[in-house]
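As a warm-up, study this chain.
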Amino acid sequence: QVQLQESGPGLVKPSQTLSLTCTVSGDSITRSGTYWSWFRQPPGKGLEWLGTIDYEADTYYSTSLKSHTSISRDTSKNQFSLQLSSVAPEDTGVYFCASLREPRDFWGQGTQVTVSS
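Now compare it with the structure written out below.
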């Protein structure tokens, strides 16, 4: 069973960098054909894809957020991370890491991040 767990600060000040980590168990983030993604859901809104890192460490980002989003990985810890720079209150929401695959997706439980001074 693949399990993902997000971790990181729940409160970030405006203009700072948000850093979140996703720890994966039950699979390897370097296994061929796997893709590891970040999503978020602002209050009262739908799910938004932020970006993906694949098994070869190639990265793909949402066009609207590409300029201040970075995804990296630590293969020794089987983790991948999200950094969102210059955050603003509209970056508040629940952040999820996920592995989208057939026949089923795997999601973390999500972590609340609030951007506020």
